[in-house]
Structure formats: structure tokens, C-alpha cells
Fold this protein.
Amino acid sequence: MATASNENDIDDFLSGRGHDTDSPGWEESYNKKQCPDCGGLHETDASTCSVCGWSPRAD
Ligand SMILES: [Zn+2]
């Protein structure tokens, strides 16, 4: 559930909770990245999900 707005607020929120904001949110399956949102599989160099548009947290 990525929202374009309030991104900085979310960063602060997660950082405050000790969440690793550097870690991408991809799941891994069969040596591919799997979108945690729709389950779509992507090559390991994928930066966004081409199926649903999800992307891991980037700075
Ligand atoms: Zn997806």
C-alpha cells in the first residue's frame, strides 16, 4: 500500500520503530523477486512491480 504523500512521515514512523528502511520489500521465490502485494514474479533487477505497480521503499 504505497502512498505518494506523507512519505517522509512514514519514514520517520518506521525509523522510530527500528524498522529497516533500507530493506526492500520484495519477497523472494525461485531466485526471482516476488511482489508482496500481488504475488507477481520479476527478475532480480526489477525495481517495481509491472503487474500492479507496487515498488519497494526507495529514498
Ligand atoms: Zn505487484
